[in-house]
Amino acid sequence: MNSNFLVEYAGIDNLNEVWAICTEIAQSMTYPSFFCCGDWLKASAKNLCPDDKLFILLAKQDGCVRAVLPLVSKPNALGGRDLRFLGTDFYPDPIGLISAQHYRAKCAKAIREYLLNVPGWDRFILDWVLGDELADWNLPAKSVSVEPFKILPRDFADLLGEFKQKKRYNLRSLVRKFLEAGGELVFSVDKGTHAFFLDALFALHQKRAVERVLDSTFEGGRVEALHRLLAQESRMVRFYGLRLHDKLIAVIYGFEFCNRFFYYQVAHDPAYGDLSPGSVLLFLALENCCSKGVTEFNFLQGDESYKGIWTNESRVLYRCDMKRGTWRSHLFSVLDQSKELCKRVRGR
């Protein structure tokens, strides 16, 4: 074991203290992510699947917590258990070891060695990790998605100035059309309006999913409970909305952490498609973020075309994993290799 760093399991009796530590350390991460702060982790921990078990590890040096790895032990397809980052069911990104960069490599090594001596799991999986952390884990990894983002200037006009004149004109025309129809940008300002905006978001999302015959990941009891808890308790929750004739027709839901906006979910009423509510709301939300001094707009994972209107920059997200040497983990390895072989054959 690493003599400088002691890894220990965090019991459930002091979780509020652990969440506070996560929020504090997350601010010093190479990339401070909302999904590594205590608000998100606490809400995720309160909305586990019935067979899930918390498995939170602390890496300490001289009694001080230098890193937190909040995991969940989950049943896998072969009857064993996998260790995954807490909240992964709800598609957060980026995630990773909650540690300042100068401690991260040593803490990752200590945690890796600790896990190999702990029974009861087959695979340790980290989804949606940024590339700069991969070397610290020294584990097999593959790219799984991209995360578009936009570094914001203080003046929104400077952002628009990056576009060609025709593109600027088209965007402004969409906004002007909406405003001339009597629409306006609105915000949530407290927990009471958070609940109102969240209700509208769920309703609009469901309406659009039905129209497009889509299976949505933003529905179900656990999803709703998690986001209602966040809306009630987290000061980092933000909502932007478009109101037309006293009706919310579009909502953006996200989180503001370390001067970054994490764009988590959006929905708009398809009945108002002629007013381009999705494009208008994104324009006005970006404008507001610039005016407040937010330095980055993180679109989160996915390369949807509308994100490309605003940015051509993105970070690659990776999945890394460690197998413990059980028969289940060996079988998972064989299955993974077979899948990769099939992909290569189909790609010929």
UniProtKB/TrEMBL annotation:
Residues 166-307 form the BioF2-like acetyltransferase domain. InterPro entries: Acyl_CoA_acyltransferase (IPR016181), BioF2-like_GNAT_dom (IPR038740). Pfam families: Acetyltransf_6. It comes from the Bacteria. This is GNAT family N-acetyltransferase.
